[in-house]
Each structure stands twice: as C-alpha cells, then as structure tokens.
Design a protein that fits this description.
The complex is a heterotetramer of chains A (about 375), B (about 375), C (about 400) and D (about 325). With about 375 residues, chain B is of the alpha+beta class. Chain B has two domains: about 80 residues, no CATH class; about 210 residues, MetI-like (MetI-like fold), CATH 1.10.3720.10. Helices cover about 60% and strands about 15% of the residues of chain B. Chain B has 13 helices and four strands. In chain B, α5 packs antiparallel against α6 and α9 packs across α10. The mean pLDDT of chain B is about 85. Chain C has one domain: P-loop containing nucleotide triphosphate hydrolases (Rossmann fold, 3-Layer(aba) Sandwich). In chain C, strands 6-7-8-3-9-10-12-11 form an eight-stranded mixed beta sheet, with helices on both faces. Chain C has a four-stranded antiparallel beta sheet with strand order 2-1-4-5. Chain D is mostly helical and about 325 residues long. Chain D has a domain of about 180 residues: MetI-like (MetI-like fold). In chain D, β1 and β2 form a beta hairpin. Classes of the chains: A alpha/beta (about 375), B alpha+beta (about 375), C alpha/beta (about 400), D mainly alpha (about 325). At the B-C interface, α9 and α10 of B face α3 and α4 of C.
C-alpha cells in the first residue's frame, strides 16, 4: 500500500469543519465487528457483488445506522451477518466477529459467524437468541396460518429453558411491552387480523422475545405510514434506552437515521463510502456521495421550488459495476485516471471519521479487481 | 468492451418476441423438444412419405411379426444399415406362427426410394418414400415395428396415426382456444353480469367428471356415420369440455391487465377500446396463451387415445394411436406380441415433448419478469 | 395542428420567475372539483350482494389555478390517489362535479362526459404514474410509447411523430437516439422521464402526478423533482400533485390539501399551512416526519391509534379518536371545510381556539449553523404577502 | 366456519339438479331408445314380441309421455331410491351398482391417499433441493408420469408381472372370492390385489400434485415469513415443514375438487384394462349396449361423487386455512 501525504488543499470544506471534533469514544469493545465482508451472488448472467468489502463495528448499547439507496447491499450485509443469505448468494470473504460477555444467564460468546455452517446448530443458537431480526414487511413476516402468539412462543421455546405455559406468559408480557393493546386476546390473533402498526409491534415483540443483545432492524418502517412510523421509532428508542441493546438500523431514509442512529455507515454499490458519528455524517460529510445524498432530499425547512442539488445519472445495474470507485461516474469531483482506476481504501485522516475517497487521502485498495 | 456494449444495446432495442426467444433458448431441453415436435409435425403433414408400405394392407400370413430392427453390425463387422429377413415357422403344438430372424437374408436400408404412389401434401403425385429396403419382395416389406393381428405394418400405421392423433389434438385445442379466448375475453373485459354467467357455466362444466361424459357423448354418435364425420364429432366433443381452463386463463390475464397502469395510460391518451385491446392487452398475453395451448394439446391427445382405446372414439378403418392401441387391449395380446404397445411409447414421447415445450414457453412467456 | 412542431412553444412560454417564488398563482381556476365522491362497493354474503361502501373519496372540493401546483397529501387510504384518478376519469366518480376550463374558454364537467367526449379533453389533461415499471408497456419502444398519444390524436405521419418524440426526449433530458429502445433498457428514473414525456406529448395544461417520485431512489428523486418544476415553469403547466411525503410536498407546491379518510382536513397556501397548521391532523403529520438533523431529536412524535377504516368511519369528525383536542362536539358533529383566514380552509370545530405547532416551532435556534450541510435556512415567512387564492365555496 | 360450509351446501342441490338434467339429456341423446334396442335384441334371441307388449312396456316406462315428464318420472324414481332396471343384465340397477360402487370408492380413496403420501414428500424434497440431482430425477419422473396414459401403464405393469413373475394381476378378487359374501378373508384377498390398480391410477396424479407442491413451496420458501422463521433460529427442516409447507399444501387440498373426478374417470379406463369390478366397465358396457337408464344412473353417480369430493376439499381447506374459516364470520 502506498502512503502519500493527504491532500487537504483539495477539500474546500476542511477549514469550515475544522472545529468539529473527532469521533467521540465509542463505549467498550465492539459486540459485532465485520471486516472485509464480501457476499456474492452467482447468477446466470454473472456474479453480482452485492456486498464487496464491508467493515464496521457495532458497540454495546449503540444504534448503528446503515444508510444507502436500493441495491447498495445494506440488507444483504446484515443478512450475511445473520447467515440468512440463500442460494445463489454466498459469503466469499471476510470476518464477522461476534463477542458477547456472559450475562442474562447466557454464557460468553466469541465467534466468527462467517465460519459457521449457515444451518448449523451454533448459528441457530445465536440467530433469534442473540441477534434478532425486525424485518421489512411485517405483513408477510408472520405465517398467515399460525397465530402470532404461536410464532412468538416458538422462538421462546427455542432459546430459553422454559415450559409452554411460561413461554406464553413471556410472549404476552412482550406484546404488552411493545404497546400492543389487549395482549391476552392478540396472542391468538392472526397477522392478517391486525393493522399495519400493530403487526409491526408484534414483529418487534417477536424479535425481543429472547432478550437479544443485537437487534437488526431492516427498513422496519418503509411499509407503514408516517404517523405510525413515528410511533414505531419512538418504541424502538424506548426499548433501546430501557434494555441497552445494540441496534443495527437499515434504512434509506436520512431523517430516520438522524433521529435514531449514534453511528452511521453510508453504503453505495456494496461498499462503505464513509462512516462516523451521526453528527459528523450530517454536519461534515466528507464523501461526495454522502454530501449528494444529504443535499438531494428536500427539507421542510428549505426554500421551496428551488432546484435541488442533484447527482447526475442513476445507480448502475449490479452487473455493470464501474471500475475503480463505484461512485466515480456520477461524482462531481471525480479525478480521471485516479478514481476510475483504483478503489480508494477506507482511511481516517487527521483523526476524522474514515472515508473511502481520494479527495481525502491517497490510500488505494490493493485488490481493486 | 465494445463487444459487450454492442450486445447490451442489442438487448435494449430487442422487441418482446426476441426477448422471449432468447429466454426460451436457455432452456436446452425445451429447444430439443421443439425440434422433436417439429419432426412429429413433419410426419403429420405427410405420413405417406415416412411410411414404408400401405398401412391398410392386411396379410393374414404375415400376422404378429416382431420388430425388425435396423442394424449396422453384421458378423461383428460394421456395415451400412440393413434389416435381417424373417422366416415364420408354425409351432406344431400351439399352432401359432413363430417368426425367427434369418441372418442369411439382409435387406440394406435405402433412402428416398420408390414405393406406393401417393399425393405429397395431398397435391403432388409421387412415389418417393424416406426409407425403403433394397431387395425386399413386394408385400414382404420388413416391418420395422412389427405387424399386428391382421399383418399390417405397424410402422406405416404409426406414421398415418400420427397425422390423425396430432391433428385431432390440434383442431380440438384450436376450437377450445377460440371458445376460451372469446368467452374468457368477454368475461374478463366486460365483467359484471356477463362475467358472472360465464364463470358459473365454467364452474359447472369443470365440476362434470370428464371421461364419463365424453364416453356418453361419443356413445351417442350414430354407428353409421362415416369416419370423417366421427372424426369431427369427436374433436368437437373434446373441445366442448376443454375450453374452460383456457377461458379462465384468458379472463385472468384480462382482469390483471385491465388494472395495469400502462393500459390506463393508453386510455388516458385517448386510445380507443379496440386499440387498447389489440395493441396493448392481446400482445401482452399471446405468449402465455401459446404456452397454455401447447400444454393443452397433449391433454387432448391423451383423451383421444383413451376414447379410441375404449372403442368409443375413432373406429377402424381410421388409424390413430388410440385405435392402434386397441390391438393391445388385454393381457393376452400384450404377452404374445409386446410390440403392439409401441404406439404407446410414441404417445408418451409426443406428450412428453409437448409438455416440456409448453413449460419452456411458459417460463419464457414473460421476459420482463425479473 | 399537432404537426406543427410545438417544441418551439417552451421558449416563448418560459417564465422567468425567480426561484422559490412563494406567490400563489391567481386568475380563474383551471379545475374546480366540487363535492367529489367515490364509493367502492363491498360485496359479500350468499349472492355477492353489496353489503357496504368504502368511501374512498367523500365529498371533496378544491380548485387548481393556471400555473399552480396543488398537492394532495395524506397517509395511505386517505383517498388522494382516488381523487386524482377521478379528476382524469381514470375512475368514474360516484357523485360530484369536476369542472375543467378548456383552452377555448368553455368549462365542461369531466365527471359527466362520455368516453368519446373525454378523448379530445385528454389532450389538455394528462397523468404521471407512480410506478415507472408498470406504467410503460414493456412490449413497446419509446417511439411507440411517447408517439401513441400523437398517433391516436391524429399525427399519422411517422416522420412527424419521430421528430416530436425526439423533441420530447430532449425536453425531459433523454437522448433522442434512445427512441428505438424498449423500457427494459432504462433505470427507474429514466423511465419516469419517459412517462413525463408521454404525458407532455399533447401539450396538456393540467398534469396529474400520482406519487410521481415515491418509487425512486433519493438521488434520482431530486432529478425528477427538478425536472417537474422546470417543466412547470417553462410550459406554464398546472399540477395536481399527489404525494405522501411532506418534505416533497412542501418543496414543490403552491398550495396543499391535507386529506384524511376521504375528506379534506385542511387546504391552504403551502407556507401558511406548514407554519400555522389549523387542523390537529396536519400538525400531527408534521411532527411525525423525522427531521434529517441529529440535533433535533426530541421533535419526533407519533400519533396514537390507527387511520380510520373508510368502510366504517367513526362518527362526527373522522379524526376524533386520534385527536388530542377532541371534545364532545367532535364525536357527534361532522365538521365542514370552512375558510378560516383568506385562502386557508380547515374542517375542524376547534380550529380558531387551537394553537398548533407548525414547522417554525420545531426549529430551536434557527441560526442556520445547525442546519444540515449545505442547506439554506428556511425562507422568511411571506404568506401574508401572497394574494389570497380562491378556495372552494 | 359453519357459514362457509353452509354456503357450499346450499349450492349442492342446484348442482345436482343441473347434473341430473345433463345425465338425462345424455341418455336420451342416442337415436332410438333403449326399448328399441331391447326389442331388437329380443328378436335376435328368437323371442318375438307383440305390438301390445311393446305398447305396455312403453307405458310402463312413460315413453309415451313428453320428454320432461319422462325426466321427472326418472328423477322421481331416483329420489325414492329406485334406480331402475337393467334390461341387459335383467337385474335392478341398484343391485348391479351396489357393491361395484363400494369398490370404486375404495379404489379411488386408496389412490388418493397413495398420491398424497407419495407426491407431497416428493414435492417438498424437490423444492427444498431445487436444481439438485434428486430434483432433476423427480422432475424427469414427473414428466414421464404425466405423459403416460394410465391404461398403458396398467398394460405394461401387467405384462411385467406376468412375464417376470408369472402373475396374473387382473381383477380385485381371486376366483374363489369372486362371488363370495364379504368376509375378512375376502377383504384380505382384495387388499392383496388392489395395490396395483392403486399405483397405476395414482401415478399421473402423483406427478401433477408433486409439481403443484414443488411450485407452491418454491414460492413460499421465498416469502419473508420463512426467512423470519429462519431468523428465529429454527432448524431448516422444522421450519420448512411447519410454515411454508402448510401454506403450500392448502392449494393441494383444493385440487381435490378436480383431482377426485379425474381419479374417478381414470379409474374407469384402468378398470376396463384390468377387469376390475367397479362401476367404470359397467358404464362402458351400458353405453355400448345402449342400456341407457343404467348408464344415466352411473353418470349421475359420478357427478354426485364429484360434488362430494369438491365439498370435502372445501371443508379440508377451511380446516387448514384460518383465513377461509373466518371468512364472513
């Protein structure tokens, strides 16, 4: 790897944001750290590199927001962590280290999830018990033929040494905890008998039923209305505060990220473009893509009917990935001969959050194949 | 790189049929079946060309000759294709003729030989046939698939039977398709009371047990009718109960297409109803209909085979696969002459090929699915 | 007539109003919707009898003026899309009037016309759909798709159609040589440009945009919004803009109608509505929008309960079960949409007495330094200066 | 639930009424009537019959009445349990049909069970191991099963049994039990023979239903609730059986509506080939011999069985799927 001086002169925003402090210390050892994760899908047309070298850490009690547009690989990243990627998808490289101290009557765990068999006993213990999923479509996430209570009890029986009666008690307790009215009766309800908001609460109750240390929320509010979304976000905030669990929140909505996340990972075409504390990402974005994303969303506070700053073009087809930095064809600051040739490495400059962009440093990734 | 962009821009300007074809082409087995069906269709068009001898000619002396395979090895030596002669000996105890291969007599296989006269495609008089056997005495043409009870050549009968069985399937399906598209289209496009009535009729017809009703209808055909009339009557009977599935399919497509935004868009720019139906809706489901039709043909073929096998469909002297299989109706004849079951193998191959082809077409029917 | 290249028109019509103009265009209304209702029957029981009605649109009235962008905003099931489709007669309304002032000055009731009478009218009003995948026939290339309105409205010469399609593609920012490509060659954003080109082919005066940017990625959404605004100015179009995203509505519209369960809750000039909402629902909606600023976290507030069922709406004000200000009158009496201040219509019994939060109150410092990167602070209030727009009577 | 079944039951009398008309039309369709052929037959047998006798027979069967009166006479008799009399067999139809109906039902039900027991696991295995060798093998077998007419399969199996094992596997009973009254020994004898027709009859359906199960299950396996069950940490086989399979099988139960009549119909042809004492060969013989009341009655029985099959499938579906069960509740 080549080490050259950083190019501060190229960054016009540097001076203005100089007073912005470096990333605040994140609490403790990361509970989850992902390094060099690559998940590829071998399709008939070619290999789709859905996740192509992703690094991030999740610390205890933290909300980590993963933000990006469609096809950026944010969902696949977390599915890879939970080992839920199905054929023809496969983790081809990387490490997913999950560390959890003993507590709650559970033993300490320190394991590389990427090495486990995807259907094996080891990952199944962690899945649902330690890392739980709040899925995107609450409507479709319950089987229509089984009551929601049955489906929650099933999870409890899988991960806790309790009887059926006790499991039912826990399930009703969890339903009450997420604000489900009449949890006793709702226990026997089917998902299609509930409204969108209640269904989302039921899904959260299911995810919480085994007191997981990591919650993966995969766009949990895209399918629901804004007033209900606000309820659900409030609920998640409360739960996070009360239980101190870590949450990975996947979304394309910058507003939701700003409201909820402590730390943000910005993804584009299977790569992390930039990551850092939420205030740095929103107030001093370094990567042109992050900047473009933030500027292109109309705000309630901005002047109406002015032209919004935009990025040209659209997200490339996953099979036609550009060479070099995946964002370079749309990047206003792209440097010909540099950005279209090599993929910039994720590097931190002057103690600021790490960014993968040649505007900020000259470190390229070695295997830019 | 340039080649790649060329290929992509080709895809960008590819019309629907091309996209469908590209998708279909990926299904290798279906493509093979398409060729197979093409061959069967060729036989159906001109069975005389493929026949080796007159399929109606009976010869009591030549009854139950086993299959005479085309061979390429003689005395352990590779040679040009030929067929051994057979000699019949009457078993003194059972008094049955038993045919044994006479490896002294060899009839070399020849192509495009002269034989009985016929009109190619019913128009051009000719006497050319695809295969023939050099040196075979007249009336003693080797029977590639053996002969039946009356000494008729099964191979030639099979070729003729292909024409009738395939065409019955095709005509019956064409009739059902017509009925299905008209009634399903009316049902799906207009909806309301018309739809309700047509749907109830379809449900009623689908609730009928098909074979008993077919049997009863066929039994009602007068025995005195000539073969061609029976042929058409059977076709109509088969079509009468067969259109419901297609009608449902067409109706379903119409209903879902009616809700599509691009159809609304066409209406909102002022396109007439006729234009919307024929320029937007029909092209969107023709490939589905073609697939459905392809899948319906084998069902009709099987049904004809059933009826004829039971003696209620086509009757001799007409030749169809079902009529031929009638010869193998009981265990006794099968045990004595297993080759009588060979037309069954032909039925299976044809139905198999049509089913696989239909499935391939169905999978390729919507090239924009992903 | 369409044979004359109408592409020259935009230049002449270009309106050089400054960016961010807050004035609400006045003049006589182009579209007047009066007491529009659309009910969908629910069938059930033994004989599929009609057992109920879903009141998707329940007595809605509003105007759209020439050159104006009016937004219909609300949560799913509020009837905004149904309203828009009824205006264009993509759906037949159950009752009410849709009065459209044609180019020749004559006003017609779109709700009552027969299909044959609608066809010439559709030259003047067009639609942009939500789903850029479903709204383009995958079996037709761009020439056929964009050329179809031209063809069915009488441009029979293929060359003339090709010229006009090339022009339209240019207008929406696509390369004219793309006209032989099929929709599958394009991304969502490009397809939406094609949809816009088709809608503009006949030079309509009113464009109904039904969630035109909702299905797009954030970075593409901004491109399409810019295009829509640019076209509106250049061609002096009027938009009936249906959306659920308040930020987009705030960004694009002159006036906004907030809908709740088939009724208009509030209708006012955009700035007025967002700064001083008079309906508790409007205020609640605004408070529920997550602000893209990590320094404004306390603001997010959910609304208790669920959206009412339009097949079985509550008594009185449909919003009362979720309203923090509901009193006895709200449970029994249905509020009427009334003009509270010039141009500001609201249907709430307690509108006068309530002091509701708008977006101005959500800002704490408002010094601009805390704004997200690169964003200008909100424009100063100028609603009072705006000429009062005519509302429904 | 009750509402749902009641709704279905309400339609049954109407259906039966329409079917009885269809059956009657079918038996009236051939030129002449059964009496004519009966008389012709009698004459052939050397028995002469006077015009008076003919007229009295005509009156007896109402043949001198208008068609609709004949219809009501027939239906009226059927409703009173009088299935008529077969000229050809010189026995009452009820007597002829009785045991054969029982055997038909036994064979059909057994084939149905065979089909499900074989097809559903095959469908599940194919779907969960999509594109594996075993999936391809099953797919090929399915295609062949679909393409083989079951009479042909019956012939081939009979031939193999005879050729290789010297077994004659026709009929449902050994000669000594043919006419015997029901006993355990006779039942055991039947069970020893019924398996072959059962396999023959069930094969095509097995192929069809395995395809349906596979396709449905593949759809369901991609659904979020399957992933959610996986995310809970359920073992794969357990979650597949508990969630998507149950959803995928519901439509299979509803196929009973068309599969049951198909089995009945298919049974007819198999029965002819294998000389099974079911109602199928009886119908064929009645049709060929223009024994029309017998034929009409049997066709009507086929129709009734079909309706009952559909009804049973509806009830099963309601039991499996709470969405249907609670419809209209």
């Amino acid at each position: 790897m080549q080490q050259t001086p950083t190019r501060t002169d190229r960054d016009p925003d540097r001076a203005r944001d100089a007073d912005r402090t470096a990333a605040p210390e994140r609490p403790g050892e990361p509970i989850l750290s992902v390094r060099g994760l690559k998940t590829h899908f071998a399709t008939d047309e070619g290999v789709v590199r859905a996740v192509d070298g992703v690094d991030f850490d999740l610390h205890p009690g933290e909300v980590l927001g993963i933000v990006g547009e469609s096809g950026c690989g944010k969902s696949i990243t977390m599915k890879s962590v939970m080992r839920l990627v199905q054929h023809p998808g496969r983790i081809v490289a990387g490490e997913i280290r999950y560390r959890r101290p003993a507590g709650d009557g559970k033993k300490a765990i320190d394991v590389d999830l990427a090495t486990l068999r995807p259907q094996g006993r080891a990952i199944r213990r962690i899945r649902g018990g330690d890392i739980a999923l709040i899925p995107q479509e609450p409507m479709a996430s319950f089987s229509p033929l089984h009551s929601i209570g049955d489906q929650i009890v099933e999870a409890i029986l899988l991960h806790q040494r309790v009887g059926r009666r006790e499991a039912k008690r826990i399930a009703i307790e969890k339903l009450a905890e997420v604000g489900m009215p009449n949890p006793q009766q709702r226990f026997d309800a089917y998902s299609w008998q509930l409204s969108g908001g209640l269904r989302q609460r039921a899904v959260i109750a299911l995810a919480l039923s085994c007191n997981p240390s990591v919650l993966v929320a995969d766009e949990p509010t895209t399918a629901i209305d804004v007033t209900t979304q606000a309820q659900v976000l409030e609920l998640l905030k409360d739960l996070q505060r009360d239980h101190g669990s870590s949450i990975v929140f996947i979304t394309h909505d910058l507003g939701v990220i700003a409201q909820l996340a402590d730390h943000v990972v910005v993804m584009y075409l299977g790569r992390v473009m930039e990551q850092g504390p939420v205030r740095d990402i929103f107030h001093a974005p370094q990567h042109p893509y992050t900047r473009a994303l933030l500027q292109s969303v109309p705000s309630l506070h901005a002047e109406p009917r002015v032209a919004l700053p935009t990025v040209s073009g659209s997200i490339p087809h996953p099979l036609h990935r550009p060479t070099g930095c995946p964002f370079h064809p749309r990047c206003p600051d792209a440097m010909p001969g540099r950005c279209d040739v090599a993929m910039p490495a994720m590097a931190s400059v002057d103690g600021r959050p790490p960014v993968a962009c040649f505007l900020h440093h000259d470190q390229a990734e070695e295997d830019a194949a | 790189m340039a080649a790649k962009t060329d290929a992509t821009s080709q895809v960008y300007v590819a019309p629907a049929w091309k996209m469908t074809w590209w998708r279909f082409r990926k299904h290798k087995l279906a493509v093979f079946c398409l060729w197979l069906i093409g061959l069967i269709a060729l036989i159906s068009i001109s069975p005389q060309f493929f026949a080796t001898t007159d399929p109606y000619a009976t010869s009591a002396r030549r009854a139950y000759i086993p299959t005479q395979f085309i061979r390429v090895v003689h005395d352990g030596q590779l040679t040009m294709p030929f067929v051994y002669g057979v000699v019949g000996e009457r078993n003194q105890r059972t008094l049955r003729m038993e045919w044994v291969i006479d490896d002294e007599v060899r009839y070399p296989v020849r192509f495009f030989v002269r034989g009985f006269e016929y009109r190619f495609l019913g128009l051009i008089p000719t006497d050319r046939h695809l295969i023939g056997f050099a040196g075979a005495p007249p009336g003693e043409t080797p029977a590639l698939l053996g002969t039946d009870r009356l000494g008729r050549d099964q191979w030639s009968r099979l070729m003729y039977g292909t024409q009738i069985s395939m065409s019955i399937g095709l005509v019956a399906v064409a009739l059902s398709t017509l009925l299905g598209i008209i009634l399903g289209g009316i049902s799906g496009y207009f909806g309301g009371l018309t739809d309700n009535i047509i749907q109830r009729i379809i449900e009623l017809l689908q609730a009928l047990p098909p074979i008993p009703v077919w049997l009863a209808l066929s039994a009602a055909l007068p025995r005195t009718w000539p073969v061609t009339l029976v042929y058409f009557a059977i076709t109509i009977i088969l079509a009468l109960l067969g259109w419901t599935r297609l009608a449902r399919e067409v109706r379903g497509r119409f209903l879902s297409l009616r809700e599509e935004d691009f159809v609304t868009a066409a209406r909102l720019v002022g396109a007439s109803r006729v234009r919307i139906i024929f320029s937007h809706m029909v092209p969107s489901f023709t490939s589905h209909i073609i697939a459905a039709v392809t899948l319906a043909i084998p069902l009709m073929i099987l049904n004809e085979t059933f009826l004829s096998f039971l003696g209620l469909g086509l009757r001799p002297p007409a030749i169809s696969w079902g009529v031929m299989l009638q010869e193998a109706q009981n265990l006794q004849s099968v045990v004595n002459a297993p080759w009588l079951l060979l037309p069954g193998a032909f039925v299976i191959i044809a139905v198999l090929a049509l089913n696989i082809l239909g499935d391939g077409l169905r999978d390729a029917a919507d090239p924009y699915a992903n | 007539m369409s044979e004359t290249a109408p592409g020259s028109a935009p230049a002449e019509r270009t309106d050089h109003r400054g960016d961010g103009d807050d004035r609400v265009p006045g003049g006589p209304p182009l579209l007047q919707v009066r007491n529009l209702k659309k009910h969908f029957p629910i069938t059930g029981g033994f004989f599929q009898r009609v057992v109920g009605q879903v009141r998707a649109v329940d007595d809605v009235s509003f105007d759209v003026h020439e050159g104006e962008i009016l937004s219909l905003v609300g949560e799913s099931g509020c009837g905004k899309t149904t309203t828009a489709r009824c205006v264009l007669r993509a759906l037949d309304p159950t009752a009410g009037e849709v009065l459209f002032r044609r180019a020749d000055g004559e006003t017609v009731d779109v709700a009552k016309l027969r299909e044959s009478e609608l066809r010439p009218l559709w030259r003047e009003m067009q639609m942009i759909f939500q789903d850029p995948f479903g709204s383009l026939n995958p079996r037709k290339n761009l020439l056929e798709i964009i050329g179809e309105p031209l063809y069915v409205q009488g441009v029979t010469s293929r060359q003339a159609r090709m010229d006009r399609v090339a022009e339209l593609l240019n207008l929406v920012g696509l390369r004219p040589e793309y006209m032989h490509r099929f929709p599958h060659a394009f991304s969502g954003g490009q397809r939406q440009r094609v949809v816009i080109a088709r809608a503009l082919a006949l030079e309509p005066r009113l464009v109904v945009a039904d969630e035109a940017v909702s299905a797009l990625d954030v970075s593409v959404q901004a491109q399409i919004l810019n295009l829509l605004l640019d076209l509106q100015r250049r061609l002096n179009l009027s938009y009936l803009f249906v959306a659920h995203d308040l930020s987009i509505v705030k960004h694009i519209s002159h006036r906004v109608a907030v809908m709740y369960v088939g009724k208009i809750a509030e209708l006012a000039p955009t700035d007025d509505l967002f700064r001083r909402p008079k309906h508790p629902y409007t205020s609640a909606l605004m408070k529920a929008v997550p602000v893209a600023d990590p320094d404004h976290r306390a603001a997010l507030q959910g609304l208790p309960g669920e959206v009412a069922n339009p097949a079985d709406p509550p008594s009185g004000c449909y919003f009362h079960p979720r309203c923090p200000f509901a009193e006895e009158r709200c449970r029994t009496e249905t509020p009427q949409l009334r003009e509270l201040a010039p141009g500001h219509h609201v249907s709430c019994h307690r509108a006068e007495e309530l002091d509701l939060d708008g977006i101005g109150d959500l800002e704490s410092g408002g010094d601009g330094a805390e704004r997200p990167f690169g964003r200008a602070p909100a424009a100063p209030a100028s609603a009072d200066a705006a000429p009062p727009a005519e509302g429904p009577s | 639930m009750h509402w749902f079944i009641l709704k279905r039951l309400m339609v049954v009398p109407l259906l039966l009424f329409i079917f009885s008309i269809i059956a009657f039309v079918l038996i009236q369709a051939p030129p002449g009537d059964y009496l004519t052929s009966y008389i012709a037959e009698l004459a052939q047998g050397g028995t002469t019959i006077t015009q008076d006798q003919i007229d009295s027979l005509r009156r007896q069967y109402g043949l001198d009445q208008p068609v609709y009166v004949q219809y009501f006479l027939w239906v009226g008799n059927l409703l009173q349990g009088d299935l008529g009399y077969s000229f050809e067999w010189r026995r009452s139809n009820a007597e002829l049909i009785g045991e054969r109906l029982l055997l038909t039902l036994a064979l059909t039900t057994l084939s149905l069970i065979f089909t499900w027991v074989v097809a559903i696991p095959i469908g599940i295995i194919s779907a969960t191991r999509q594109y594996s060798v075993i999936d391809y093998v099953f797919t090929v077998l399915n295609y062949i099963g679909l393409a083989t007419p079951n009479f042909l399969l019956a012939l081939v199996l009979m031939w193999i049994a005879f050729d290789s094992f010297g077994l004659s596997v026709t009929g449902l009973f050994s000669p000594e039990f043919q006419q015997a009254p029901w006993s355990w020994a006779r039942f055991a004898d039947m069970m020893g023979k019924i398996w072959l027709p059962m396999i023959v009859l069930g094969t095509a359906g097995t192929a069809q239903i395995a395809r349906v199960v596979r396709a449905n299950l593949l759809d369901e396996l991609g659904k979020p609730y399957t992933e959610m069950a996986r995310a809970k940490g359920l073992p794969e086989w357990k979650l597949v059986l508990k969630y998507p399979t149950r959803v995928a099988i519901a439509p299979v139960v509803s196929t009973l509506g068309w599969y049951f009549p198909q089995l009945l119909s298919g049974g007819l042809v198999v029965a002819v080939v294998m000389s099974l004492p079911t109602i199928g060969p009886l119908l064929l013989r009645a049709l060929v011999g223009q024994d029309m009341y017998l034929a009409g009655t049997i066709i009507l029985i086929y129709c009734i069985l079909t309706v009952v099959g559909t009804l049973v499938s509806d009830v099963l579906l309601a039991l499996l799927d709470p969405r249907i069960r609670m419809d209209g509740a």
